[in-house]
């Protein structure tokens, strides 16, 4: 018999939605939404990125990300520059305001992770994160095989 309470997509979505809704409410005080935070966090951690690479890092659809980055650029959170090696390639980088906001939100993000992982050992945490990464990669098969 099918048990929704034990269905992996349901469990992932349930935990993710609870985290996302509460976290989004809290970071709104910094003037950014959840997707904007993901862009800021990715750029803070990885440095400037091509739009396609940033889409992969943030799991935001490329066309959605392009519009989002445009809005963020108008808000002076990010900037776009031409790549030195290939003048046709645009790179997205943090602007000073975006860096300040990212740094202000990081402690909140770390607190949410600590709370979510309460009662989970360091070994279990590594295992959980590794398994979730593997599940994410496995889901590429849906794109290739339908």
Produce a short descriptive summary.
The chain is mainly alpha-helical and 146 residues long. 67% of the residues lie in helices and 8% in strands.
List keywords for this structure.
three-stranded antiparallel beta sheet; 67% helix; mainly alpha; 7 helices; 146 residues; 8% strand; Arc Repressor Mutant, subunit A; single chain; 3 strands
Q: What's the arrangement of secondary structure elements?
A:
Elements: H1 8-27, H2 34-46, E1 49-50, H3 51-58, H4 62-74, E2 78-82, E3 90-94, H5 96-116, H6 122-138, H7 140-145
Antiparallel strand pairs: 1-3, 2-3
Describe this structure in words.
This protein is mainly alpha-helical. It has helices at about 10-25, 35-45, 50-60, 60-75, 95-115, 120-140, 140-145, and strands spanning about 50, 80, 90-95. It has a single domain, classed as Orthogonal Bundle (Arc Repressor Mutant, subunit A). A three-stranded antiparallel β-sheet has the order 1-3-2. α1 (about 10-25) crosses α5. The mean pLDDT is about 95.
- SSE order, one letter for each helix or strand: HHEHHEEHHH
Strand content: 5-15%
Helix content: 55-70%
Largest sheet: 3 strands, antiparallel
CATH class: Mainly Alpha
* Counted beta strands: 3
Span from first to last CA?
25 Å
Strand order of the largest sheet: 1-3-2
Question: Ranges with pLDDT <50 over ≥5 residues?
Answer: none
CATH topology name = Arc Repressor Mutant, subunit A
Please give the count of helices. Answer: 7
Structural class: mainly alpha
Quaternary organization: single chain
Give me the Rg, rounded.
17 Å
The number of domains is: 1
């Amino acid at each position: 018999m099918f048990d929704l309470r034990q269905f992996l997509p349901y469990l992932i979505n349930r935990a993710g939605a609870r985290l996302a809704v509460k976290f989004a409410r809290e970071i709104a005080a910094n003037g950014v939404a959840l997707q904007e935070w993901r862009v800021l966090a990715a750029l803070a951690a990885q440095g400037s990125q091509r739009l396609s690479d940033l889409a992969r890092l943030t799991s935001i659809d490329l066309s959605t990300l392009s519009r989002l980055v445009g809005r963020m650029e108008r808000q002076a959170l990010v900037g776009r520059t031409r790549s030195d090696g290939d003048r046709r390639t645009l790179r997205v980088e943090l602007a000073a305001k975006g860096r300040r906001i990212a740094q202000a939100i990081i402690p909140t993000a770390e607190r949410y992770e600590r709370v979510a992982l309460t009662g989970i050992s360091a070994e279990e945490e590594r295992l959980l994160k590794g398994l979730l990464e593997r599940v994410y990669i496995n889901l590429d098969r849906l794109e290739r095989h339908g």
